[in-house]
Every structure is written in structure tokens, then in C-alpha cells.
Design goal:
Elements lengths: L34 H10 L12 E9 L2 E8 L2 E2 L5 E3 L2 H9 L3 H4 L16 H8 L2
Antiparallel strand pairs: 1-2, 2-3, 2-4
Length: 131
């Protein structure tokens, strides 16, 4: 029996392996996510984490515990420690996320399997909050 992907939000086809889920740098938008979307993401994180869920490396995601939010790599559907970033307050998280873009979240340095691989994008965030 095959384990189904438990995608909270994804802009990648289901069932594809992670090497096929990579965004090319030319596909990455430079527009900022903005305050409105960042606030909506924070509120939605109270009900569900934002993380892809399949075997092995699942990109990056967010999880909220109380007012705190962590941004981390995801493996087997679970956020890993230590986080890439941790935010103590709503204000801190919203301010940071609002000035991010597909490009800034892609972690592209040209040298890693993780470059643009299952990262946080505008499309994933919009799907996550239902826009």
C-alpha cells in the first residue's frame, strides 16, 4: 500500500519525487508576499502547520505553537530541529514574512539539492489560506 501525500498546500504535482519538484530560478517571483497575506498565514497556522508530507526531504514549512512560529526544513512531513528561523511573536513573524518573496524563500545558491526544492512560494501560501 502506498502512503498518500498529506499536503497541506503544494504547488508541486502529487506523487513526484523531490528532484522533479524543484523550481528553476527563472520561475521564482520577486514580488513581496505582503502584510495581508502574512497576517492570514499567521492566523491559519493556529489550525494547521504548512508542510508537505511524504517520505524523506519535503522542503520547508511553518508551524505555530501558541504565538511562536518556526520556519524549518521538513522531513517525512515533520519540521526538523534546529529551525532555520524562529519567531517569538506574531508581529515578528508577520513583518518578516511580508517582505519575503518566492526568490528569497527558495534558498538558491546553486550548490545544493535543496535549491528551490519544495520551498515556500506565493502560490503555496495563497492555497494555504484559501485564496
Amino acid at each position: 500500500m502506498t502512503k498518500k501525500n498529506r499536503n497541506v498546500s503544494s504547488d508541486f504535482p502529487r506523487g513526484k519525487n523531490s528532484t522533479q519538484n524543484r523550481l528553476e530560478s527563472s520561475d521564482l517571483g520577486q514580488g513581496l508576499f505582503g502584510l495581508d497575506l502574512a497576517q492570514s498565514v499567521y492566523r491559519r497556522l493556529a489550525r494547521s502547520k504548512l508542510a508537505l508530507a511524504h517520505r524523506d526531504y519535503c522542503g520547508t514549512g511553518f508551524e505555530r505553537k501558541g504565538e511562536k512560529v518556526i520556519y524549518s526544513e521538513v522531513y517525512d512531513g515533520e519540521l526538523s530541529n534546529p529551525p532555520l528561523k524562529a519567531f517569538s511573536t506574531e508581529k515578528e513573524f508577520v513583518q518578516w514574512l511580508s517582505i519575503q518573496s518566492d526568490r528569497s524563500m527558495a534558498r538558491v545558491d546553486g550548490s545544493s539539492f535543496k535549491d528551490g526544492n519544495q520551498t515556500i512560494t506565493l502560490l503555496r501560501l495563497r492555497e494555504f489560506v484559501g485564496r
